[in-house]
Amino acid sequence: MAVNLGEVIRPLLDGAKVSLELSILSILLGMAVGLLIAIIEVYGGKILRYIALGYENAIRGVPLLVIYFILYYSIPMMTGFSMDPFTTAVIGLGIRSSAYQSQIFRGAIQAVEEGQIEAALALGMSKWQVIRHIVLPQALRISLPGWMNEYTIVLKDTSIAIAIGVIELTRQARYLVSYYLRPFLFYGMAAFIYLVIVLSIGYLAGYLGKKYQIIGLGGGVTRA
Amino acid sequence: MPEPLLKVVNLKKRFGSLEVLKGVSFEIDRGETKVIIGPSGAGKSTLLRCINRLVEPDEGEIYFNGVNILSEDIDIKSVRSKIGFVFQHFNLFKHLTALENVKIGLKIVKKMDDKEATEKAYKALEMVKMSDHAHKYPAQLSGGQQQRVAIARALAMDPEIILFDEPTSALDPQLVGEVLDVMKDLAKKNVTMLVVTHEIGFALSVADEIMFFYDGIIWESGPPRDVVYNPKKPETKTFLERIFELYASSEGES
Between residues A204 and B13, which one has the greater pLDDT? Predict the structure, then answer.
């Protein structure tokens, strides 16, 4: 069957848009949770710290596909509460990413010297003010390269959402393949779109890294 | 007689089996400069950190303006904002310029508006002759310049006393002078200071008293000249001789 490029590009771009939305919402959810987990792991009391570490290790030990199936099939059966595929995908990917992001942020938080924290406390700041005004502004800059790398992983793993029926880029490619029977062409086009997004993110990271770079502070981004 | 600004009574601190402070007592009046000398690693830094409770002492009392700041109902943040602290390794905030380093305490702790904080920070930077470098980041400054910014950061808060923890020990020899000059200047302006240092010359020129910290207590104290040139205890004498030897040999080399 002849392929009309105008006809096939549209569903692919629609899929890419869903993938992009899914990746952005997931990385942000993962950031909010991951940052909280990291702060607890570094500054929390003993019990909270164990809970946070337990969460991190448990999530890192379970495949994303299994997380999706638990959220999409097991939880509705147990609780009667169900979510649409897209929301499920955001939460699953966000949770999975939070475990990895917490590692990135924890390392960055620990890279801020104890001496600066002492100095801030000596000025009369509260523990929270120290975290907010001294630790996080430095830790976020330091974690930028690792965080951008995590984003590219999240973006690529949006393709696993095909398993719970999210109509994203890979799903659209597979649909076109089943119609036109041209796997090389359509999976190739999907791969190309993923690649373009990942490379763009790399450039954005480089730009942000330069813009927020501070002399003497880590976090400069080297572009691939 | 007015009460002393700071009065430390029988302060004790233990880390595991190591008793670092074994009952330290001393006091400082407003406007005084006191210098603590003594062997490294003996607990002088711990002593300073106990005074603003960056380290919690195990026992004893610390009266600041007559109030025991070790009692439970004390708001330690408010006490700390009145006690300046200058660290051996400067500890400037790396993501902030010199000016912002000085401003941040004013804005966040003292809740000043930006304009007022900027003016006050510039005044403090001028006192340490660093206003020309206000917009540089710590990594762009020499050690001596960083330490002067750190002093400005403490000064801007209008502290009632400033604690100095070996402020020149991490500096290259040629940079020590500029920091000591600033500190001498403050002493002359009657800023109350408690200084842990090995700079005997500084102690001789501006201190009201030298305290020799040894074996967890204030072993010997008195007017600088008496302690330095005529120490009463053999341990003090041995320590000072070693300091003098060190300085004589390093001067010989350079």
Answer: B13
Average pLDDT of the residues of chain B: 94
pLDDT at A211: 83
**Residues of chain B found within 8 Å of residue A138, distances taken between Cβ atoms:** 93-95
- Written as six digits, the tokens of A126 are 């509260």
CB B200 within 8 A of CB B208: no
pLDDT at residue B52 is higher than 70: yes
3-state secondary structure chain A: CCCCHHHHHHHHHHHHHHHHHHHHHHHHHHHHHHHHHHHHHHHCCHHHHHHHHHHHHHHHCCCHHHHHHHHHHHHHHHHCCCCCHHHHHHHHHHHHHHHHHHHHHHHHHHCCCHHHHHHHHHHCCCHHHHHHHHHHHHHHHHHHHHHHHHHHHHHHHHHHHHHHCCCCHHHHHHHHHHHHCCHHHHHHHHHHHHHHHHHHHHHHHHHHHHHCCCCCCCCCCCCC
The residues facing B220 across adjacent strands are: B212
State the maximum Cα–Cα separation within chain A, in Å, rounded to a whole number: 74
Distance CA B108, CA B201 (A): 37
Taking an 8 Å Cβ-Cβ cutoff, which residues of chain A contact chain B? 113, 115-116, 118-126, 129, 133-134, 137-138, 141, 214-217
Are B49 and B126 within 8 A, CB to CB?
A: no
Residue A7 CB contacts under 8 Å (≥ 6 apart), including other chains: none
Provide the 8-state DSSP code for B162: E
CA-CA distance, B199 to B197, in Å (whole number)? Answer: 5
- This prediction has a pTM of 0.89
pLDDT tens digit sequence for A122-153:
999 999 999 999 999 999 999 998 999 999 99
Instruction: Give the ipTM of the model, two decimals please.
Output: 0.94
Residue identified by tokens 């097991």 is A74
Contact B137 A122 (CB under 8 A): no
Which helix (H) or strand (E) element contains residue B242? Answer: helix B234-253
Choose among A93, A115, A84: nearest CA to A19.
Answer: A93
The CA–CA distances, whole Å, from A47 to A43, A60, A97 equal 11, 20, 23
Q: Which of B81, B91, B104 comes nearest A115 by C-beta?
A: B91
Q: Which residue of B has its CA nearest to A119?
A: B91
Residues B199, B202, B204, B208: is their CA dihedral positive or negative?
Answer: negative
Q: Which residue has the tokens 């905030």?
A: B93
- Other beta carbons within 10 Å of A204: 13
